[in-house]
Every structure is written in structure tokens, then in C-alpha cells.
Design goal:
Blueprint lengths: L7 H12 L4 H51 L3 H11 L4 E5 L5 E3 H17 L7 E5 L4 H12 L3 E4 L6 H11 L3 E5 L3 H11 L4 E5 L11 E3 H4 L19 E7 L7 E6 H14 L7 E4 L6 H14 L2 E4 L8 H7 L4 E5 H9 L5 H4 L4 E5 L3 H11 L3 E6 L8 E2 L9 E2 L10 E4 L25 E6 L15 H6 L1 E3 L7 E11 L4 E7 L3 E4 L2 E4 H11 L5 E6 L8 E7 L7 H11 L8 E5 L13 H6 L9 E6 L4 E4 L2 H8 L6
Parallel strand pairs: 1-11, 3-4, 3-5, 4-8, 5-6, 6-7, 10-11, 10-12, 12-13, 13-14, 25-26
Antiparallel strand pairs: 1-2, 8-9, 14-15, 16-21, 17-18, 18-20, 19-20, 20-21, 22-23, 24-25, 26-27, 27-28
Helix pairs in contact: 1-2, 2-9, 3-4, 3-10, 4-5, 6-7, 9-10, 12-14
Amino acid sequence: MRAPGAGAASVASWALLWLLGLPWTWSAAAALGVYVGGGGWRFLRIVCKTARRDLFGLSVLIRVRLELRRHQRAGHTVPLIFQAVAQQQPERLALVDAGSGARWTFAQLDAYSNAVGHLFLQLGFGPGDVVALFVEGRPEFVGLWLGLAKAGVVAALLNVNLRREPLAFCLGTSGAKALVYGGELAAAVAEVSPQLGKSLVKFCLGAAGPDAVLPDTQLLDRLLPEASTAPLPPAPSAGMDGRLFYIYTSGTTGLPKAAIIVHSRYYRIAAFGHHAYNMRATDVLYDCLPLYHSAGNIMGVGQCLLYGMTVVLRKKFSASRFWDDCVQYECTVVQYIGEICRYLLRQPLREAERRHRVRLAVGNGLRPALWEEFAQRFGVRQIGEFYGATECNCSIANMDGKVGACGFNSRILPRVYPIRLVRVDEDSLQPLRDARGLCVPCEPGEPGLLVGQIDQQDPLRRFDGYVSESATRQKIVHSVFRRGDRAYLSGDVLVMDELGYMYFRDRGGDTFRWRGENVSTTEVEAVLSRLLGQTDVAVYGVAVPGVEGKAGMAAIADPQARLDPNALHQELQKVLAPYARPVFLRLLPCVDTTGTFKIQKTRLQHEGFDPRRTSDRLFFLDPQRGAYLPLDEGIHARICSGASGL
């Protein structure tokens, strides 16, 4: 990479002075003067301002790489690493359930997971088989997937908000031979049972009573106490490159896809967070994020399994309990998504928010406008913002507290971590190419699509993709950095400043993020269209002032003005997760399409939910009433002022 402001003139100056035979010191001084005068001062400024940051980032990369290499050479896996940790500190608290108050030591978590592994081996499951987990976040959830991994069985971690078609789809595409569901989710499983087939073995965990169990289900709570808790012999595996579990991500199109998480990816994500933010084994981490996602289950729980930290779990975020929990369990690290920070700031002042011991908050999506207010009000000394999709190979981290940045890439040594922002076509979101056929890199300040060069031999740069091979191919682009190479397409638009700090701008493709979840527009469109008799529907995300992410909005063709929004809402509650239900409706005579019948959303997105910009009927899903209300200028003003409860 050529230094900013350095051009051919600087090189020519050096050569000319050398040929003239001037003393070396004079030549160097003169050339430096030409370099600085020609704009090289910009590069020197970048070096001075970022060298310390870049050196620390480089040390983190080296440390993670060395740890991974050591574990790979030893043939370790995540369960084996955990077993070593558990043997070193068997009586230390591993997991605490803030909801029930249950406390699990490392010895107890090890024994429970051993029982799970032995049980499923006895039941005929073996290495490579898949078992789906549909259980809310609690210590048993961790013990289940960890125990399955000890037996070489791959767990498919299902989003507990899934219902009907999406739930059946995820179960079917996982290739699962068995399903473990929590008693609290029995009704959701009953709805899809006819679609699952008789060959799927079902187990229920934590049934509230006989009536909560489906007829063809075995009770895990009765089977596990009879299983051995002795350590299992290491399962045949590919070591750190073997499959650990699947996490479902909506990606950019269609229904959720099962992203493959191998042991090295689990280790890499947890290790980066641990070293980038100087976590310690004595820290206590508060994790109220879903355990079916990578942030809660890898960045959070991974600190327990790999580094021996105590992790406090709460299956659902509670703004009123957050700081009380942190005080009660003496937490020093908390996890967040941007919306959590906003909800906490909306809470009335309380004593606990200043009595806690939290020094570090780790997460993503914290709005720049809230960053300093959050840190100052709650006395959190360090904000560890990061960017990284479950399956991506281009994760970045804000290691020095730069307000608003989700990470950085070195301007001095950009090839050390080969990621890049590239220009894309605004309509197709496909990378633009130069005369050589390579992707066009963005200049500082220019938004672009984040890509990461793929190297399957490097655990920091490999891309394991999805269970679906076609979905994997769609995320790979060729000839990015050089001819014939391969890179991962993140689908996200970021912007980088002159110092290399990166800032998240938007989620590209047919996906937007709301309430910390990815929402697939094509999935919601398909559900709405089916419910409405194949009516034309366009779903898209719209920005709401002061709210993180984008709220879902559905434009529905209703030429006869007969659609009843609240009757539709009753049906949506049965088939869509709460975060996927459209917050806004726009009923219009017809939905614009292209000549190839592709729905055009650009104008609709631009007009948003402002009733002054359209004569179409608009509706707002009021969170307090749980019903759609006609959206007039008064309600619009209330939403924009932050008084709507969103």
C-alpha cells in the first residue's frame, strides 16, 4: 500500500540526489523535505496517531494465532480445553442463572456435559450426527451442546422465537436426527410436529408437568441422572477444524441459514474478545444475550469455557434488573447490543447503577450519540465495541475506545489483516471492478462493502460457510485483492476514516437489523403474501430517530382498501417472531415492480413512515396496545420524539 501523499516524485527525488553524489545525510534530509512537502506529512501523522493502537492490535493477532496453533498441534477441541480448565478449578463458579438463582461450578458443568455425552452415545448417536436444541438460555443449554460435542455430535442451535414454517425449515435443513426442546416451548414444537416426520427423536428438558410433554417425547430429566458422569474418551474428529455446532443467521436473503461453527472459530471469537479487552480469569461476565447467537454463546460463554471466568446468565434482558444483577453477582464485565444501552438510559436513576463493579462493556451497535452518555452515567470505564457476523472472517474490534467506531484496520500495515472496503453497485450490491478485473477499494470517508480475504489454512481467515453449499457460494467473491483470490462478502456497508477507524453504516441486501436480530425481508414478504392470498408485498427497514437498527415496514397492495391491519396482526403473532413483525404498514393501490417483476423498494424506503409524504394509509404497531393504529402526523411526531415506546 502506498503511503498517503507519497508519490513518484518522492522516489525520483531520492534517486536524483543520489546520482548527484550529495552526502547521504544531506540526501536524506532533502528527500524528507520533498516527501513532507509533497503531502507525506499525512502518512507521518497517521503513523504518530495510530502506531500504538496498531501495535496492540498486532499483539492480539499474534497471541490468538499462537494459542490456536498450540491447540491445533496438540489435537485439542473446545471440550478438551474446557476439561483442562475444569480440572484446574473444579469448585469455582462457572455459570450462574440469574433467573432461578442456580449456581453451577466447573465440576458440575463438566459432570452434566459428560452425562449428556454418554447418554446420546448410548442412544445410538455418534460423531457427525446432528441434534437440534430448542431451549431457552440457561446453564443446561450450555451443558447440552458441550456434552453433545464431547460425543462428537453437532448441535443445531435454534432461535427460540421461531414458529411454524421457519421453525420447521430450520429443523429440516439442519439434518437433525433428534430435537431437544424446553418444556416452555412444547406448544411451538406441537405446531410443527406433523411436518417433522416420525424418524425425528424428541426429548423434553424441564417439563412443567405431564401435560407439557408431547406424546412421542422422552424426558431428559429422567434419563440424565442414570447416565455416567465419567470423562468421555476423545471423539474421533478433525480437531480444531471439526464442526462444533450450527448457528442460524438470516444472512442477506431468504429463510435462516445454518452457519457452520468449527472449534477454531469458537476459539478465535472468544480469544479475540478476551485479549483485545484485557479480560482476566477473575472477571465475572454478565450475559443477558440469546445463547443461540454467537455474541451470547461464544463471546460470552466462551470466556467461561476457555478462560475459566464466571458467567452470569439471564435468559431475557431486563432493564429494571440489569444493574441489580451486576451488583448482586459482583460482575466486572457486561455484554450489550445497542438497544440494551438505550433501554438502560431510559430507566429512572437508581442506586445500583453506581454501586456496581463493571469496568468493561462489550458488544456492538452502541450509537455514537449514546456512547459517552452511557459511559458517564453508569461509570463504565471501557466500551469494547466490535463488528463481526457469526460466519465472517473479517471481524474487527475497537480496542482503544474511539467513540462511535466498531473497529479499525491498520493504514500502516494493511496486509497484516487482509480486509477491505470495496465499492459496490447501489442496486445489485455487487462489487464494482477496475480495468484489471479487481474490486475497487474505497477511499477514506467513502462507504463500501466489507470483505475479507479467504485462506482455509489460516484459522483467522478461513470461511466455513453454511450447511447449504449454494448459500456458501453466494457469500464468496473472486479476484478481490489479486487475480484468482477469494474473499467473504459481509453484506454490510461500513466507512473508514483517514486513521483506519471503521464505522458501521448499513446492512446491505435483503436484511435489516431490529431488536438485535437480523430480519430477512424475503422471509417476511413470503409470510405476508401467503396470509393475504399471494398479494404483492414489499418489506424493508426504515430508520426511526433515536432507535438502533431499522424497524420493519411492509407496503401491501390493497386496491380495494379492505385489509384489516389488526386481523393481520393476529395471524402474524402465530407465524412471525416479535422482532420480525412489521412495525409499520403502508396500504397502497399497487406495489411498483421492474420489468422483470422485481419489487422496487427504493422510493418506499426513502419516504419511510412520514404521513406528509404519501396519501397511502399508514399504520403503526403500538407496543403498549399491541395493535396497529392509524399513523397520522401526531403519532408520527410522538414516534420521532421517542415517546412511542419503541
